[in-house]
Amino acid sequence: MTDTATLERPAVAAAASLELTHALTQTLYREARMLDDENYKAWTEMLAEDLHYHMPGIETRYRRDKTDQVTDLTRMAYYNDSKPEILKRLSRLDTGTAWSEDPATRYTHIVTNIEVEHTEKTDEFRVFSNFYAYRNRNERDEDSLIGNRIDIWRQTGEGFQLVKRRAILKHNVMLSKNLNIYI
Questions:
Q1: Backbone phi, psi, residue 142, to 5°
Q2: Is residue 178 part of a domain?
Q3: % helix / strand / coil in the chain, to the nearest 5?
Q4: Radius of gyration over alpha carbons of the chain, in Å?
Q5: Rounded to an integer, what distance in angstroms lies between the CA atom of residue 183 and that of residue 36?
């Protein structure tokens, strides 16, 4: 596994140029479209081989409680996956036994408030964004997921690849019957 830039923001971080910010913004929009269209083959090609995809579970805590709910990888998480684990999750859609996806879920991903910063690695960039992900299945099953993301994207000869993602939901109780969505 390659040592990659950290998700943690340094005291001073250099903002990316408008051109780089635009390129990464378009990459995030393309990623959202691929997820909406369930084009998982194209989406997984955007994932680096050393990917870490993390969505921690968040508990309601008092401000005085300094428990690290976000970066502590030993705590409960909805996702704490590598690329092979994501590929395994997606492969079940081809089995015909993924009952929670038959009939198919309809998705809309909205990504906004995108900020891009340089990291200590010249080919990796820290990208902050907010998301809204809407799911609808059958006649009445609806879910809305809202939160923030911190990503590391690596520039390669073929474009950008997602190296790390931390998606932080603003929900502390997941009311969905299942969680068959990538954010």
A1: -135, 140
A2: no
A3: 20, 40, 40
A4: 17
A5: 10
What tokens were used for 165? 């993602």
**5 part of a folded domain:** no
**Number of domains comprising the chain:** 1
CATH code for the domain in which residue 125 is found: 3.10.450.50
**Cis amide bond preceding 103, omega within 30:** yes
Question: Which are the contacts of 103, defined by CB distance < 8 A and separation ≥ 6?
Answer: 137, 138
**Domain interval for residue 108:** 18-169
Nearest Cα residue to 83 out of 23, 1, 158: 1
In which residue ranges of the chain is pLDDT below 70? 1-2, 11-12, 60-74, 99-100
Residue 167, pLDDT score: 95
Q: Residue 107's closest CA among 70, 136, 143, 148?
A: 136
Instruction: Retrieve residue 13's tokens.
Output: 């971080």
Tens digits of residue pLDDT in 32-70: 999 999 999 999 999 999 999 999 887 766 666 666 555
50 in a domain, yes or no? yes
Beta bridge partners of 156: 159
| pTM, entire model | 0.87
